[in-house]
Every structure is written in structure tokens, then in C-alpha cells.
Amino acid sequence: MSEPLLETRTLVKSFGALKATDNVSIDLRPGEIHAVIGPNGAGKSTLIEQICGGLVPDAGQVFLEGRDVSAWRTQARARAGLARTFQISALCMEDSVLENALLGAIGAMGASWRFWSGALTRPELRERAEAALERVGLEDEHDTQCASLSHGERRQLEVGMALTLAPRVLVMDEPMAGIGAGGSKKLTELLDSLRETAPILLVEHDMDAVFALADRISVLVYGKVIATGSAQEIRTSRAVREAYLGQEA
Description:
By secondary structure, the protein is α/β, with parallel strands linked by helices. The chain has helices spanning 44-52, 74-79, 97-108, 123-135, 151-163, 181-194, 207-213, 231-235, 238-248, and strands at residues 6-15, 18-24, 27-28, 33-37, 59-64, 67-68, 82-85, 169-173, 200-203, 216-221, 224-229. Helix 3 (97-108) runs parallel beside helix 5 (151-163), helix 4 crosses helix 5 (151-163) and helix 5 packs parallel to helix 6 (181-194).
């Protein structure tokens, strides 16, 4: 079995009397999509923030390619290959698709933000941005204002911006949120095609997408992982159905 590229070990985070993550241990292996599901308030967002560096755990560790990155800042984890997309869009709506992708490329290459005005003419930045846009199917939308994109296309752009980091792993927070059936199908196909580029830790409520994509699924309820297994194992788990899938059905 391949060594995990991303791993959490007994992560704990409390907010007063509420234990948002309670000894959470999960891992992400090369070439796979590992989905984390659970009801609202289960602790999924807190888990992501600890993995990506936005929250310091009260206990436990985060490992990236075998290195303990628990004390690293968000930017350091990103430079080491941990890329993330957000539940709420963080795009610059007044800028073009290419300009948004260039923002990602600037950060990926460690370039100074003071060079932003000349970024369009810097071949190494433009090449990285254009390659990412082609990878996500937006190569014909370079000059389109981001505000004019459909919601699904904005999600594609966010994935493209993450790809400018040349990530070792991708962490995605509800990428299907707000997307219609057609856009969800297209994004599902895109994510499926990325698993060999970078394995994906996927937090998602769209169960059709989860069952179509996930090699493994972990179910988080009240801060605890109550089950981890294949899609079939999770579908047929009585404990999971009682805690979560039953209400989804």
C-alpha cells in the first residue's frame, strides 16, 4: 500500500465545551479521492482549516508527504504542495479569467505582488496560468470577465488557480455547492481526471458526486469519524445511515 501524501493524526480542536474535531485521523493516498461527509456542524470545516493551516489544533498532527507541517503557516503548506479550493468563491469578479489564473501563478512561483501590473507580459507566469486554464477547459475564456462566468465555470477556474501551484494534494471544500445538474456532471468529470495529477480530499454534500468519485469515504459526526470505507461499505453501513445518510435519502 502506498504511503499517504496527506495524513492527520488524532486532531483535536475545541471551542469552549464544543469539541469540533475529536481525535480525527484520516489520510489521502496517491491517485485517490477521499471524501469526507457528514451533517452540518459535524466539524468538516474545522478539519479543513486545521489541515490547511488556518487553525492550530489543540492536539494532534498534520503530515504532508511524511513531514510534520502542524506548525507551518498556510502559505508554507501551499508552497509545499497543499492546494485548496473554498466553499465560498474567492475570485476577483471584475478581472478576467486569465488575470485570476495569473494571481494563482504569482503566488505559486513566489513572485512579488508588486510585479502584478506586468504579470501579463511575464512568459513564465502566463505559461503556467494558461496551462492550468487548458487543464480545466477554460482555454477559450482568457479574456472573459469572471463575473460573466456561470457558477460551474467559476468552480472550474478555482480548480485551475489551485493547479497553478503544481499541487501534491488538493483539498476541496464543497466544490459542487450551488451548481446545477449539468455543471455538477462536468465538474465531477474534471475532478475524476485530476486524481492522478494530485489526489483529492473532498468535503462534499452532493452524494451523487461523492459516490461517483470517492475511492474511500470518511463520515464525520459530532467531531468524530464514525466510519471509513468504500462507497459500497458506507452505503450499507447501518450506523452511517442512522447518523447521516438516512436524512440525506
